[in-house]
């Protein structure tokens, strides 16, 4: 028996060990790092305690009845079935509690809606399935894609610390400044959420929504898309780096310079190999989630490119659909999402990868001219 | 008892038909009620098995069992099947069985339409479920099917989904018309409106809600159909349409729909709590007014599902205040139930166990509803697992426990046998523990930041997801026990008296158990 007991304990401990070691029993909302998120947290805690108090009273009476007023104890039932005073009271008192609750909620809401006098304006556009951040005042923009490797998702590799909550290019904002976000979407509705900021707003095609934040503590903050937006809805995280102002200014200068370099790349003479190399990367971030890394797609919504008539023959049609999209389908217009270089590289890649060996290439200049003709 | 004597005299000519035609062609409210209940239980198992797929995938982080595309189809179909296939038909089944018995009517007012509205349902669900086998898969845009994900970006099977929703809508509207016609025209002499049993009252109000909002649902899916096939742009911004319009129209249907799924349960619970407390229901009149108030308010709160879409602040405040107001009549109902129990003579057979759990757990769902109504806080809760926890707390221990309580309460009347009390109590306790284990940790997950409708999650959510999945499997498997209990009860067991519960009140207990095929051919007199 003893041996069995010891074995059972050892087994139970073995089974529980990974759980207790990894355990993360976060049960409550985080107060966050902005005044908005702190106000929301205090509203949340207030209403929670009100509910707990009401619950204690109501369930207290109920459990008292359950224990004391049992038939099995020979308790004889009373026969009352109305009492105007009590009934009026339990209508009025909850009403008063609700009014008391509505007042601070209203104040907080009014503050959350005040998007005036911002220091930095950033336009956020939701795409299936990544975010684009556009620094309106500084004339540069970039995409932010999830950077968690497929192998981690497919359980072929150990999961990293920030599994699913890491991106290639985080949004960078200055600490202590009022940052205004203008949100919209390119395809379906997305929703941009950073729990630590207390900011969540839907990004809706055809609409521009506004919200704002002022972060006081430097750091990296993580959130996710919270509106179902298709198959990779679970894989479009939001990562924001809040940095001191000097650091922010340096970063902005770098980004502007990089954008300028990128523009100059269009002029360069590209070889097929260079375009293929760049195209493979661009394809992986912009195209592979629908058309798949091996070009076989997910028909019927996402057709195969491998061996397709368009990728093998119809070059004009190929350029057109990549630049302008196909209205009424999931195929987006990539003309404004990718640079001329990336557009040329992707089209070249699609015409030469996976055995599509056409040997044809499209140069950035051709794309530039094509866009200007329109 | 003259009603019963008549039935015996006529049984030879008017008994049930033999074979399949009894079920295909029946106009008998009891047969149709049984068919609705059996159909809804089949859908409950189907929708539940999809929930098992969801919970199995979410047992661990990473993708292991299904692909994200199929995961989305599962969440969508689970929601649609549970709402339209399990909960709503179950209440229509209870209405069919019990309304005529409770008001002393021989049948429903429109028996042929009754048959038709039932048989539409299997057709609708055959179409809906068949989409799983179509190219491109089943609908994958969530049971709320927000445009443009469901229009421009929807799978080809969306058209079949729209057709299925239309058929369900027709069925529900016909069912509702039948309920209203029956209650308003066929009550026994002397049964004034304020003497009606609460289940009758709550169903009358529910039926009006159905008639008001099912056409709105039909309208919104028709607009989708036009956008998909006929070149309109109701919800397509690039054609001058408005994706947010979809949400306004959908939730104008969707919020009253929530009360459609809970009000009949309120009625049934009121009977059960009073019966097992052996004491009259406290505050009958205020119960009726509270249900009426909830129904009216349910039309004024739809946009609290949309606090993050960027409404003007005035709209935001209006919908917050209106939503908070609903807590008042809902509170009145809970207080009345508790006061009914207070100083009663309580016993805890299976219907009472489910009813007491209903009151406690539905109230917890109400509390989280109150929290969600606070608009600023909703910016944190919205579209997280906190919302999933909230609506499962009002729907599982609310609607579903209400249906189980009703089933155990009236099973002796339907079958003529007592069910196995020990097994039924086992069913209750396993369901109770499983359900709380499955859904309570979801509150924590939501507050810690886990969005809903994701097939994979960050590592900090692992532990609670594991617990939740274990609870869900436990709850799911337990429901097979319910099937066993009902079959066992239908096939035999201790004979049930006409009134098997000593505290029960109402006309349904004046007819023998099982209730004869025809009852109240001559209306009873209500004093």
From TrEMBL, chain A:
The entry's keywords: Copper, Electron transport, Heme, Iron, Membrane, Metal-binding, Respiratory chain, Signal, Translocase, Transmembrane, Transmembrane helix, Transport
Keyword Membrane assigned: yes
GO process annotations (BP): ATP synthesis coupled electron transport
Residue ranges constituting the Cytochrome oxidase subunit II copper A binding domain according to the UniProt record: 117-254
Residue ranges that the Swiss-Prot or TrEMBL entry lists as coiled coil: none
E.C. code: 7.1.1.9
Family: Belongs to the cytochrome c oxidase subunit 2 family.
Protein name: Cytochrome c oxidase subunit 2
Species name: Marinobacter halophilus
TrEMBL record, chain B:
Enzyme Commission identifier(s): 7.1.1.9
Protein localization: Cell membrane; Membrane
Gene Ontology molecular functions: cytochrome-c oxidase activity; heme binding; metal ion binding
Record's keyword terms, sorted: Cell membrane, Copper, Electron transport, Heme, Iron, Membrane, Metal-binding, Respiratory chain, Translocase, Transmembrane, Transmembrane helix, Transport
Membrane topology, record value: Multi-pass membrane protein
Residue ranges annotated for the Cytochrome oxidase subunit I profile domain, each copy included: 23-527
Record-level GO BP terms: electron transport coupled proton transport; oxidative phosphorylation; respiratory electron transport chain
Transmembrane segments: 35-56, 76-97, 118-138, 158-186, 198-226, 258-276, 288-307, 313-332, 353-375, 387-411, 423-446, 466-487
Pathway: Energy metabolism; oxidative phosphorylation
GO CC aspect terms: plasma membrane; respiratory chain complex IV
Catalytic activity: 4 Fe(II)-[cytochrome c] + O2 + 8 H(+)(in) = 4 Fe(III)-[cytochrome c] + 2 H2O + 4 H(+)(out)
EC main group: translocase
This protein's record includes keyword Transcription: no
Function: Cytochrome c oxidase is the component of the respiratory chain that catalyzes the reduction of oxygen to water. Subunits 1-3 form the functional core of the enzyme complex. CO I is the catalytic subunit of the enzyme. Electrons originating in cytochrome c are transferred via the copper A center of subunit 2 and heme A of subunit 1 to the bimetallic center formed by heme A3 and copper B.
Protein family per UniProt: Belongs to the heme-copper respiratory oxidase family.
PANTHER family found in the cross-reference section: CYTOCHROME C OXIDASE SUBUNIT 1
UniProt protein name: Cytochrome c oxidase subunit 1
Organism, as annotated: Marinobacter halophilus
């Amino acid at each position: 028996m003893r041996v069995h007991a010891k074995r059972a304990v050892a087994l139970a401990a073995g089974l529980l060990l990974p759980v207790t070691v990894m355990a993360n029993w976060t049960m409550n909302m985080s107060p966050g790092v902005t005044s908005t998120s702190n106000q929301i947290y205090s509203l949340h805690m207030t209403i929670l305690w009100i509910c707990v108090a009401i619950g204690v009273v109501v369930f207290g009476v109920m459990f008292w009845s359950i224990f004391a007023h049992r038939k099995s104890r020979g308790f004889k039932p009373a026969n009352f079935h109305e009492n105007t005073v009590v009934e009026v009271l339990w209508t009025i008192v909850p009403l008063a509690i609700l009014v008391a609750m509505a007042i601070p909620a209203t104040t907080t809401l009014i503050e959350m809606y005040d998007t005036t006098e911002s220091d930095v304006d950033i336009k956020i556009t939701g795409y299936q399935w990544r975010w684009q951040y556009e620094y309106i005042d500084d004339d540069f923009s970039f995409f932010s894609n999830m950077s968690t490797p497929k192998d981690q998702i497919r359980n072929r590799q150990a999961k990293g610390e920030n599994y699913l909550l890491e991106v290639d290019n985080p949004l960078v904002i200055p600490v202590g400044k009022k940052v205004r976000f203008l949100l919209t979407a390119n395809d379906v509705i997305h929703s941009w959420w950073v729990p630590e900021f207390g900011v969540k707003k839907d990004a809706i095609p055809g609409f521009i929504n506004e919200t704002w934040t002022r972060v006081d503590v430097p750091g990296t903050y993580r959130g996710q898309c919270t509106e179902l937006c298709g198959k990779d809805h679970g894989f479009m995280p939001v990562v924001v780096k809040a940095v001191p102002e000097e650091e922010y200014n340096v970063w902005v200068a770098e980004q502007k310079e990089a954008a300028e370099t990128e523009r100059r790349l269009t002029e360069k003479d590209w070889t097929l190999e260079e375009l293929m190399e760049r195209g493979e990367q661009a394809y992986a971030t912009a195209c592979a989630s629908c058309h798949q890394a091996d070009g076989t797609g997910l028909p019927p919504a996402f057709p195969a490119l491998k061996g397709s008539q368009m990728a093998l023959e119809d070059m004009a049609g190929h350029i057109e659909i990549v630049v302008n999209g196909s209205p009424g389908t999931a195929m987006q217009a990539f003309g404004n999402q990718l640079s001329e270089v990336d557009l040329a590289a992707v089209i070249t890649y699609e015409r030469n990868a996976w055995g599509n060996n056409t040997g044809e290439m499209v140069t950035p200049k051709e794309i530039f001219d094509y866009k200007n003709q329109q | 008892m003259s009603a019963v004597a008549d039935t015996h005299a006529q049984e030879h000519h008017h008994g049930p038909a033999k074979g399949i035609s009894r079920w295909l062609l029946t106009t008998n409210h009891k047969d149709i009620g049984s068919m609705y209940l059996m159909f809804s239980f089949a859908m409950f198992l189907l929708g539940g098995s999809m929930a098992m797929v969801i919970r199995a995938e979410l047992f661990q982080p990473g993708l292991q069992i299904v692909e994200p595309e199929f995961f989305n189809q599962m969440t969508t179909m689970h929601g649609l099947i549970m709402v339209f296939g399990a909960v709503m038909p179950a209440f229509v089944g209870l209405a069919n069985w019990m309304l005529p018995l409770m008001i002393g009517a021989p049948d429903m007012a429109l028996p042929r339409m009754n048959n038709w509205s039932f048989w539409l349902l299997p057709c609708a669900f055959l179409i809906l479920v068949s989409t799983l086998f179509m190219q491109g898969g089943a609908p994958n845009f969530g049971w709320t099917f927000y445009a443009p994900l469901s229009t421009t970006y929807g799978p080809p099977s969306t058209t079949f989904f729209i057709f299925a929703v239309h058929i369900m809508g027709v069925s529900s509207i016909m069912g509702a018309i039948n309920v209203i016609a029956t209650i308003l025209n066929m009550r026994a002499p002397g049964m004034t409106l304020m003497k009606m049993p609460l289940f009758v009252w709550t169903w009358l109000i529910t039926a009006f809600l159905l008639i008001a909002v099912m056409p709105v649902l039909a309208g919104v899916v028709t607009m989708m159909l036009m956008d998909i096939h006929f070149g309109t742009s109701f919800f397509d911004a690039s054609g001058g349409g408005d994706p947010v319009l979809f949400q306004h129209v959908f939730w104008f249907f969707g919020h009253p729909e929530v009360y459609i799924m809970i009000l009949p349960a309120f009625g049934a619970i009121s009977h059960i709590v009073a019966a097992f407390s052996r004491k009259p229901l406290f505050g009958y009149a205020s119960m009726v007014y509270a249900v009426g108030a909830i129904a009216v308010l349910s039309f004024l709160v739809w946009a609290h599902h949309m606090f993050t879409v960027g409404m003007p602040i005035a709209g935001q405040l209006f919908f917050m205040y209106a939503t908070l107001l609903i807590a008042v009549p809902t509170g009145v109902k809970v207080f009345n139930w508790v006061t009914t129990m207070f100083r009663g003579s309580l016993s805890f057979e299976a219907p009472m166990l489910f009813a007491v759990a209903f009151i406690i757990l539905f109230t917890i769902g109400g509390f989280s509803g109150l929290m969600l109504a606070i608009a600023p806080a909703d910016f944190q809760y919205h579209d997280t697992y906190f919302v999933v926890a909230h609506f499962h707390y009002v729907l599982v221990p609310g609607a579903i426990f209400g249906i189980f309580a009703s089933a155990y309460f009236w099973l002796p009347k339907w079958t003529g046998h007592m069910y196995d009390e020990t097994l039924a109590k086992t069913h209750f306790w396993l369901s109770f523990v499983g359900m709380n284990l499955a859904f309570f940790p979801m509150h924590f997950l939501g507050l810690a930041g886990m969005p809903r409708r994701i097939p994979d999650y960050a590592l900090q959510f692992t532990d609670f997801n594991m617990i939740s999945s274990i609870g869900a499997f436990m709850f799911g498997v337990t429901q097979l026990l319910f099937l066993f209990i009902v079959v066992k009860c239908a096939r035999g067991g201790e004979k049930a008296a006409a009134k098997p519960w000593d505290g029960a009140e109402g006309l349904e207990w004046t007819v023998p158990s099982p209730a004869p095929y025809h009852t109240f051919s001559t209306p009873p007199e209500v004093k």
